[in-house]
Amino acid sequence: MIDLGKTDAALVLEDGRVFRGEAYGAVGASLGEAVFSTGMTGYQETLTDPSYHRQIVVQTAPQIGNTGWNDEDDESGRIWVAGYVVRDPARVPSNWRSKRGLDEELANQGIVGVAGVDTRMLTRHLREQGAMRAGVFSGDDLGGVEEMLERVRSAPTMKGADLAGDVTTAEPYVVEAVGERRFTVAALDLGIKSNTPRMMAARGIEVHVLPLTSTVDDLVALKPDGVFLSNGPGDPATQAHAVELTRGVLDRKIPLFGICFGNQILGRALGRDTYKMRYGHRGINIPVIDVSTGKVAITSQNHGFALEGEPGEEFTSDFGRVLLSHYCPNDGTVEGVRALEVPAFSVQYHPEAAAGPHDAAPLFDEFVTMMGEGR
């Protein structure tokens, strides 16, 4: 059990609130944006999701680490979170696939965390005040509150942060289709999760994952049946190159599908602005409604920015009419875009859902149908 009498670690928020606990994982200091994730499971996938780059993740589920850490469920080659905050970490992991404890893996990868925090109180605070800059401090870096607060307030904000270039692949690589190859897709890596090309490969798609610096000519040289825009971190307003590349794809009428960050990129390519949400959507139980059918899907999400507009709104873009196709009933946030005169659509959530529900998995089948119609 965590001994709450100890105060050898602290989470310091930019508004001056301090939450004390014990060091968990690596010892030191780490700065980032404090956000909360409501997933009851899937902490390994959360930690290795590149979309969490430069964010300090607060887990709302009180018990974390029960199933340890395995070598199969990573969504990328490393842990991307800037820091980690939990209530009650497992003393001994128990799972047949577990190779080591979560605390051991956090320490191995240099991720500074804090345990024993009242995460319920912390989550309520972030929900009311909004996501904000924060720091996790322990060991020799645990100093006076004013000293730690000064370090937090000197850190850059997430608004205006250009982070996709930090997480994109350095070199192109290919994920082979399972069985017969039916289609070829060029996937722009803005922070892609491992399960996404795996889901496409299972549908007979050969996925060519390309760096963010790729040009439209690089994509076209592959003679793809479709183009995919991945999830990723940071402010979509910084991604002028990705937006211009997307406009080139739309101009050529190549079937296009985007998720999460890719939804924001497509929206901006179609002429819509984006804004920073108060505290975002992060979890695996978030409802989304399709305005065309009224169907509700429970989805996995991780985003702090969103597209401007009203659910069901139609507008005219440089590429014809566009529908804001999905929304979250919790707060009215736009959750999807569909071009009505060129073959392109995107959603704000994660249909690959690892971990999470599978309600949205058929979107990959819709992409397959769109590519088939494009031949």
From TrEMBL:
Query: Region CPSase: start and end of each range?
Result: 1-183
Q: In which pathway does it act?
A: Amino-acid biosynthesis; L-arginine biosynthesis; carbamoyl phosphate from bicarbonate: step 1/1; Pyrimidine metabolism; UMP biosynthesis via de novo pathway; (S)-dihydroorotate from bicarbonate: step 1/3
- What Enzyme Commission number(s) appear in the record? 6.3.5.5
Task: Give the active-site positions.
Answer: 260 (nucleophile), 350, 352
Which annotated residues bind L-glutamine? 51, 232, 234, 261, 264, 302, 304-305
Describe the reaction catalysed, as an equation.
Answer: L-glutamine + H2O = L-glutamate + NH4(+); hydrogencarbonate + L-glutamine + 2 ATP + H2O = carbamoyl phosphate + L-glutamate + 2 ADP + phosphate + 2 H(+)
One GO biological process this protein is involved in is:
glutamine metabolic process
Give one Pfam family, short name only: CPSase_sm_chain
| Molecular-function GO term, any one | carbamoyl-phosphate synthase (glutamine-hydrolyzing) activity
Q: PROSITE patterns recorded for this chain?
A: GATASE_TYPE_1
Kindly state which keywords UniProt assigns to this record, in alphabetical order.
Amino-acid biosynthesis, Arginine biosynthesis, ATP-binding, Glutamine amidotransferase, Ligase, Nucleotide-binding, Pyrimidine biosynthesis
Record note on quaternary structure: Composed of two chains; the small (or glutamine) chain promotes the hydrolysis of glutamine to ammonia, which is used by the large (or ammonia) chain to synthesize carbamoyl phosphate. Tetramer of heterodimers (alpha,beta)4.
- State the family named in the UniProt similarity comment for this chain: Belongs to the CarA family.
**What role is this protein assigned?**
Small subunit of the glutamine-dependent carbamoyl phosphate synthetase (CPSase). CPSase catalyzes the formation of carbamoyl phosphate from the ammonia moiety of glutamine, carbonate, and phosphate donated by ATP, constituting the first step of 2 biosynthetic pathways, one leading to arginine and/or urea and the other to pyrimidine nucleotides. The small subunit (glutamine amidotransferase) binds and cleaves glutamine to supply the large subunit with the substrate ammonia.
- Name assigned to this protein: Carbamoyl phosphate synthase small chain
UniProt organism field: Saccharothrix ecbatanensis
- Source gene? carA
